[in-house]
């Protein structure tokens, strides 16, 4: 039983580390710099009204369908970037980009 618990704990740590490494280098063709450019408009506290031109340019090059798969991983976005996922999912529309219909 203890061995199974230790294995489960190790797997959890590995998953968190893999997610951390992926987020550090960007995700879905959205670089870390692009995520940081969008952070003020999707911030948990005191967000700006509109995304910056740099944010919109980063989103224009991102794989929005891929980003949709991360919308349920709010904890990762909050932990690493202090982003409110609901605000973040609204940014493409504010940049004149269409989100995939199934997002």
UniProtKB/TrEMBL annotation:
InterPro entries: Bifun_inhib/LTP/seed_sf, Bifunc_inhib/LTP/seed_store, DIR1-like, NsLTP-like. Residues 28-103 form the Bifunctional inhibitor/plant lipid transfer protein/seed storage helical domain. Residues 1-26 form the signal peptide. Transmembrane segments: none annotated. Keywords: Signal. GO terms for biological process: systemic acquired resistance. GO terms for molecular function: fatty acid binding. SUPFAM superfamilies: Bifunctional inhibitor/lipid-transfer protein/seed storage 2S albumin (SSF47699). This is Bifunctional inhibitor/plant lipid transfer protein/seed storage helical domain-containing protein. It comes from Miscanthus lutarioriparius. The lineage of its organism: Eukaryota, Viridiplantae, Streptophyta, Embryophyta, Tracheophyta.
């Amino acid at each position: 039983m203890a061995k199974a618990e230790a294995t489960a704990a190790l797997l959890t740590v590995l998953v968190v580390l893999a997610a951390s490494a992926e987020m550090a280098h960007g995700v879905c063709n959205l670089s870390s710099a692009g995520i940081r450019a969008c952070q003020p408009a999707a911030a948990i506290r005191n967000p700006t009204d509109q995304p910056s031109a740099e944010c919109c340019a980063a989103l224009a090059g991102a794989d929005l369908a891929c980003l949709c798969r991360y919308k349920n991983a709010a904890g990762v976005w909050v932990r690493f970037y202090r982003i409110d996922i609901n605000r973040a999912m609204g940014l493409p529309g504010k940049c004149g980009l269409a989100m995939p219909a199934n997002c």
